[in-house]
Amino acid sequence: MAFELPDLPYAYDSLAPYMSAETLEFHHDKHHNAYVTNGNNLLKDSGHEGKSLEEVVKASYNGGQGGGLFNNAAQHWNHVEFWNWMKPNGGGAIPGALEKKLVADFGSVDAFKDAFVNAGVTQFGSGWCWLVLGKDGKLVVSKTANGVNPIATGEGTALLGCDVWEHSYYIDYRNRRPDYVKAFVDNLVNWERVAEILSNAS
Ligand code: MN3
Predict the structure, then answer these.
(1) Considering Cα of 103, then 101, then 117, then 155, what sign does the dihedral take?
(2) How far, in Å, is the centroid of ligand 1 from the Cα of 180?
(3) What is the per-residue pLDDT across 95-118, written as a single tens digit (0 to 9) for each?
(4) CATH code 3.55.40.20 region(s) in the chain
(5) How confident is the model over 135-174, as pLDDT tens digits?
(6) Which of 89, 172, 163 minimizes the C-alpha distance to 128?
């Protein structure tokens, strides 16, 4: 089925000062929209037209040799999730069951946050950092290049992801990627959404 650009689940100016309206206008209206448009052009006659978005991502990954269809479909999935992983007045208290799981698997919430920020900062070039529920039931932090995501690699369920492509932070943070990822995890994350995905996957 054709890919569709969803509206942002909040107002463009509602994530400021951590993410500006200008960043969201470019990121959602230009970048995400381009993944949808290019993805739909590449989906035509690909043999994957009848599949769900997740199925297209899996089927087009091709062990890391995926081409344009994979890149655009995966980035479409990543961005749909990314918008919902943030909320106005985000960050703050983490729902109990999720907090317990973070402490059990990382030692503390701060240790998780440090690992997540470090993954985002050390991803060389464009990509994403992730909190993943692995197939063994343990939480892990990981990072991927470009559009690659945990659906493609089969690493597990993506509970949280942060876009570290320069287009996601250069207007607001210039080259200060560490400040951006730290602001994301401390002030933008919709922890209720993360807890909901964990609960559905457990
Ligand atoms: Mn992006």
Answers:
(1) positive
(2) 13
(3) 999 999 999 999 999 999 999 999
(4) 96-201
(5) 999 999 999 999 999 999 999 999 999 999 999 999 999 9
(6) 163
Scanning 13-159, the segments in alpha helix (DSSP H) are: 21-24, 33-43, 53-61, 68-84, 96-106, 109-122, 150-153
Average pLDDT, the chain: 97
Q: What is the pTM of this model?
A: 0.97
Residue ranges with CB less than 5 Å from ion ligand 1:
163, 165, 168
CA distance 185 to 129: 11
Is 21-84 a CATH 3.40.50.300 domain?
Answer: no
Cα 97 to ligand 1 centroid, rounded to whole Å: 30
Question: From the CA of 43, how far away is ligand 1's center (Å)?
Answer: 20
Give tens-digit pLDDT for 56-80.
999 999 998 889 999 999 999 999 9
CATH architecture of 96-201: 3-Layer(bab) Sandwich (3.55)
Sequence-ordered alpha helix ranges (H) in 68-128:
68-84, 96-106, 109-122
How far away, in angstroms, is 83 Cα from ligand 1 center? 10
For ligand 1, the distance from its centroid to the CA atom of residue 31, given in whole angstroms, is 6
